[in-house]
């Protein structure tokens, strides 16, 4: 069974984005420090737009490589800013009253993991943009 690269990338973007979103949501609320709302906005908005573009593309309703490249670049830029904010917030939660928690602090661990998945998702969007720009997004993967 063969799958096109565009589908594989979009599904991975959705999966990694959802994991980053879930990790952030698990510490959102009392632990929401500066920028957390921006990160949540990026994660949710990019996830919904990616899902809509995927559905419209696969249904044959809308398919435009220019829109896909522009969206992938914008999503990658937003994701990298979100990852930076997550790294800063993870570092904030690593210290409490001068005490270094290190690994094992659940708030720090979730912020760090969310930042890592945001970086992975950003990389996927960059790959998606480059492959679509070069016209290889429709390339069939080997079996």
From TrEMBL:
Entry's Gene Ontology cellular component terms: membrane
Keywords: Membrane, Transmembrane, Transmembrane helix
InterPro entries membership: Marvel, MARVEL-CKLF_proteins
Main location: membrane
Domain MARVEL: from-to ranges: 1-137
Membrane spanning stretches: 7-31, 37-57, 69-91, 111-133
Protein topology in the membrane: Multi-pass membrane protein
Keyword match NADP: no
Keyword field contains Transmembrane helix: yes
Localization annotation: Membrane
Protein name: Myelin and lymphocyte protein-like
Native species: Branchiostoma belcheri (Amphioxus)
